[in-house]
Amino acid sequence: MKRATNSIASPAILVLAIVFLFSLKAIATGNVTYDHRSLSIGGRRQLIISAAIHYPRSVPAMWPSLVQTAKEGGCNAIESYVFWNGHEPSPGKYYFGGRYDIVKFIKTVQQAGMHMILRIGPFVAAEWNFGGVPVWLHYVPGTVFRQDNEPWKHYMESFTTYMVNLLKKEKLFAPQGGPIILSQVENEYGYYERDYGEGGKRYAQWSASMAVSQNIGVPWMMCQQWDAPATVISTCNGFYCDEFTPNTADKPKIWTENWPGWFKTFGGRDPHRPAEDVAYSVARFFQKGGSVHNYYMYHGGTNFGRTSGGPFITTSYDYEAPIDEYGLPRLPKWGHLKNLHKAIMLSENMLIGGEHRNFSLGPSLEADVYTSSSGSCAAFLSNSDDKNDKTAVFQNMTYHLPAWSVSILPDCKNEVFNTAKVTAKSSKVEMLPEDLKSSSGLKWQVFSEKPGIWGEADFVKNELVDHINTTKDTTDYLWYTTSITISANEGFLKKQTLPVLFIESKGHTLHIFINKEYIGTATGNGTHVPFKLKKSVPLKAGENNIDLLSMTVGLSNAGSFYEWVPAGLTSVSIKGLNNGTLNLTHTKWTYKLGVQGEQLGLFKPGNSGAVKWTVTTKPPKKQPLTWYKVIIDPPSGSEPVGLDMISMGKGMAWLNGEEIGRYWPRIARKNAPNDECVKECDYRGKFMPDKCNTGCGEPSQRWYHVPRSWFKSSGNELVIFEEKGGYPTKIKLSRRKVTEV
């Protein structure tokens, strides 16, 4: 028996490699059809390897390089959701500027010679605020989201139709010569359909019918929809989809979301998915007859402004994707997957047109062989044992298969790739700090708000109100304020003991001020949003002001009836008084939406907001509710830029009026005593989000992406709103430097 080589240098393989490279230059358009094997685009069967890049999670200046980096990584399609709440901020008023210029984004994909998969939804989940649905829709009388509900269906169909007509007008669907080859209606509804009863089943069927009636000329998908009607393609989401089978035999096997990493929450740790396991999952999918594969995410990007959902999803949506948040290839993951894609595409014609046979090669070992009528063949050899390397014998040749790996043989002889053998370059990533600087001299403008009501109160009630129903997400902030009178005869005043404040909240976060002094913060987290507070408070004889600043950190983005998930205070009391417990839950509460500087637009360039700013070279530190404004020069070099906020507490940041987003260098904690972070991750075996966590005891997010295109050559206005108190002079701009090793 001969031992197989790992070389790709044989003449037959080199010819196939040239064919692969040539195929990347010419992407077909035309009518899109399908059968059980694959899509057919313009009359030609194709395998699709797609890269998810969400246009509003980056900026237009980044789009060409992101798309090109995906193409260089061996992808031939780009996928994105359509973000309804970004495009229709109020009923019938549409926005397609800046990061939401979806037509420009799709044309960027087209110019790169790539296909486009557009998931119109319009519900998206995606760790995006309110699942991408406009908050105003929740307050249209009688509306229940994602149900056989007339108001919901009216607005959903209206937006879908508007988007389809816009895209048709721009000739962006494949039959028009455009790049869009697939679309999606709804999103992972199969998880929740049962909770909506018969109305859920009717809604799923209506969604498919409504979508198909748009006559876009390309197929519609419904992911994780096990009862998808015959007119749409049921697809799979998950870490592994090799065992997935469409719900009818005439549909191709499509993987809409392969998660190459995972999202992160404020206070959460860093999840990692090894490149070897990602490659294993992809190879297994194509080994088992898959024909359309999409990485969710290939570039995660940034949740700029207040767009993150969750709650508690970080501003970074890096996702440990093959392209990092800053737009740079993540090595070795990007390179390893690039090599995988080359190997798969060498077998494209066999995979979509050859006869498929499966052979057992021993325990946990199998071969899937695709043979053409001319006698050519391609083979995938896999070892699903998650501990032991094995030797397989295939066609009188031996192959070493590491544990949990797949080898690809595009000619049934030469192994050109094994998912566990990483030969791609690695890299060293550094964040190189630079102090804030200005050619005109660094001067800070400072404005501090007073806790509690500013201007006129919005309303008064003898009860605690729901936060979200009050603000309707026009702001993160809602003030709950009241006052109590403490008698000079209270025993705690003489004993020098402090009474205890008890608070219960549905979430998300709360800053507590007693007599205008900040005394602490209480918060939920990404796994348990409600919280309770028990804290000693320094009350005095006479009148005492209690000012509670409640905050949301992104709205819920998924789940049955998720639009009804509450937030805000539900109970307030004080214990340790002469009469025992003072229950304040139903006392007189005065409310104010937002914070003053936000309402005055202090983050807008050149806007003084008619408030008195203090100009200084030594801004105050550890001062809550403070606005800082400073004119800065851009950092040196051309590398991507992150704003280092390790010295600050919690708040919001802007550059030249552009929303950098929420910052909160909250320390990542263990969820349980035995919930350890890892130093090294074993790629072998099934991956789950908590398998390979790092970052225990470190800030969940220290750096905040500031796109280079937002900087001017000089005179850049950086605005910070700090809620708790920090050290503004320690804020830095860091350049992200990647060095191959």
From TrEMBL:
Residues 39-343 form the Glycoside hydrolase 35 catalytic domain. Keywords: Apoplast, Glycoprotein, Glycosidase, Hydrolase, Secreted, Signal. Its EC number is 3.2.1.23. It is an enzyme of class 3 (hydrolase). It comes from the Eukaryota. Residues 366-422 form the Beta-galactosidase beta-sandwich domain. InterPro entries: BetaGal_gal-bd, Galactose-bd-like_sf, GH, GHD, Gly_Hdrlase_35_cat, Glyco_hydro_35_CS, Glycoside_Hdrlase_35. It is found in: Secreted, Extracellular space, Apoplast. It holds the Pfam family BetaGal_gal-bd. Gene3D superfamilies: Galactose-binding domain-like, Glycosidases. Residues 1-28 form the signal peptide. SUPFAM superfamilies: (Trans)glycosidases (SSF51445), Galactose-binding domain-like (SSF49785). It catalyses: Hydrolysis of terminal non-reducing beta-D-galactose residues in beta-D-galactosides. GO terms for cellular component: apoplast; plant-type cell wall; vacuole. Residues 625-716 form the Beta-galactosidase galactose-binding domain. One of its GO terms (biological process) is plant-type cell wall modification. GO terms for molecular function: beta-galactosidase activity. PANTHER family: BETA-GALACTOSIDASE RELATED. Belongs to the glycosyl hydrolase 35 family. This is Beta-galactosidase.
